[in-house]
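Lecture 7 notes: from sequence to structure.

We start with a single chain of 480 residues. Read the sequence below before looking at the structure.
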Amino acid sequence: MSFSQLLLLDIPCPEGLRQVRELKNRVAQLPYTLLAFAGVSGVTLKVVVRCQYSNDEKPWVLTDKTLDTDKYLAFLKTAHECAARIYTSLTMCDLIVDEQSLAHGCRMSHDPQRRYQLRYNVVKQLTEFRPNDLAFKPWQPLTDRLLKSMVVEQMKEGGESWMNDIRIYLESAHIKDYNPVHEFLAGCGEWDGKADYIEDFARRLPTNYQQWPKYFHRWFLAMVAQALDINRDYGNSMVPMLIGGQGIKKSNFCKNILPPSMREYYMDDIKMDNAEQVERVLGRMWLVCIDEYNAKTDREQAKIKRLLTEKDVQIRKMRSDQYTMTPRLCSFIATTNDLTPLPAGDGSRRYLCVEVTDEVDMSGRIPYKQMYAQAVYELQVRNALYWFTSDDEQEIQRHNRPYQQASSIEEVLTNLFVPATDHQRENLWQVQDIQKELSKHLKASDVPNIIKLGKILKALRWPRGGNTGTRGYYLQLKKS
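Now the structure, written as tokens:
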């Protein structure tokens, strides 16, 4: 048997847990402090101090190795008086003095971190938890119901309960941040360089479009770059559009772009009628598949096109009226069984149409870690291109023409041009110039000849004029 030489100090904190935390930080500065924690009542700070004489003498140990209890209690009383002077001076509080005894203890306060593992999911913008003794259980959102259960557990331990204090703690910066996407990418390891895993995945989708593996690779890098918040100026504004019949696993291909562990950040569709939900999706989903794109109304398609260029989104946090600017996480992919899903006339440079010619091959293991490790390596080491250049967009516009809906030439013209108020030479378009511009946005068979186009232009009553023998229309191209 031996005595611990540990002393328990009681410091009153009538202002509650806020004062407990403040004084705890103060006493932690002293080398004598071994442990400091809130008492179960929440209005005292318990401090455990190790005590000894300066020469490490132990007068309570007798020559025959027996222990003198009275001498040890006298030592504790003297130690408490010395410690009280030091800790009272530091905390500006009078210590609670109890008669010293050999068995002196207390109950610790209810600490959520003792019973649970806690983290703040910065993507979902909520606190998650799982039991400390069952680490294999999945993380769960800390709902109001579960929070109240924590409070009840504290009450069962015999302590009083402060719901607001516990909520403030759980929603504070004391809970460590956790970014599931960043953690996944960091855990993928190094790319082995043995294959182009990204383009191998793209080739699971059968198509006659030879540029598909290259452009999927570029889009995939853009998706990862956006998740890593590499580009602060632009969002991932390209949407692969998978075109084909029912039952050929187009949607299955889209879902399998993300590994199973990240599927909770995948969404099959997005409802455009709730603006707040749309903003939340942009910040909290990594990939959204716009299923059956052709079923979207013209207004919904226009909203989707606008979303593609957003980089930051405004999101309202749970149980808060305040909005915060959050980096956009979401990238988009789309499916349709309509062979002409794109509107006519605007080139649809935000979409990459890919006609799926057969059933998508989703057999065999997908090497997700190597796919994403390759993307991170190319972005961070090779500084690879992860956006579509103007040349790429022009090529994609030419490729997309067969997938555009037929429309009247008048509609196409009014989508492309606006009458110029300044009748200067640089705004003068001859009919053949207008015809050439139309050929950039329509299939060759849909471009009218000069005579027919002239009649259409005359019917539009756009301002005409000319100089030095050159006649035409005063027009300006609309900004896309």
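The first strand starts at residue 6 and ends at 12. Keep this in mind for problem set 3.
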